[in-house]
Amino acid sequence: MTSPQGVGARLGFRLVGVEIRVEGLVMTYGDVRAVDDVSFTVAPGEFFGLLGPNGAGKTTTLEMIEGLRKPQSGSVRIDDHEPWRREPALQRRMGVQLQSSSFFERLTAREQLDTFGALYGVAAGRTDEMLEQVGLVDKAGVRTEDLSGGQKQRLSIACALIHDPEVVFLDEPTAALDPQARRNLWDVLRTINASGRTVVLTTHHMDEAEVLCDRVAIMDAGRILELDTPAALVRGLDAPVRISLAPGTLSVDDARAIAGGDPVTADDQGTTITTREPSRVLTALAQRDALDGLSVKGASLEDVFLELTGREYRA
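The structure assignment produced for this chain is given below.
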């Protein structure tokens, strides 16, 4: 497991954000142990992800870190402060975007930000900065009920950032967004983190975590199963590589000769060699001038996730 301090040093964080220490968190609801002895540390300036299927305990864990719930057992410290005590000085350093965001009725995007800013005593000019940062300048005069789902999510994040917090908590910020809106929001989240803020994200989108997060903790049934960088988790899976050839590139017999005993499948979409020796196979294909239209797919964070949590659907 990679230490958060090691990650920060390697990636060259600007250590502006706060450090989060979570130790032995427990939360139960009746007989259900929603969070079961969860511990981890988030380094200043790190982009940290909590991943897991529905009901894994991600949101409950995040709510305890944010101070919305007091842990039944264990502790959370944000720069040596306990967030559940709701200290005004600490709350000003935190920005929170909840899974389901609510806005004041009948206010425009600009008015929403002005209102949130006024609660923190923020200068009015900050609204223009945030509208530009989240790409909503042209929607400033539009009422929130008339914004698209992606625009509402960006406005929600802007409201969480209006007071310039050092740590930002995002609970499934791209849930229910279309692919274009998700990618657009990723750019916003990268900008937030690049400014030096610590970011803690919950998501069940593995591609999102793989692109954005420095480290991820995969949760299930209230426990952390694995915690490391996405790349290290994928390497640890030791999964084979799938090399796919366009139809007509090679005969099945030639593909099997190159595979040398590795599995080969063929259909109307082409031929696929599944191997743990991709360099050997790719070299042989190059020698036969068979690289046109080729695709190579290794394991992903999604493969790690499914290996750890299973493939059974959970509503």
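Interim note for the steering committee: The mean pLDDT is 89. Residues 179-194 form the longest helix (16 residues).
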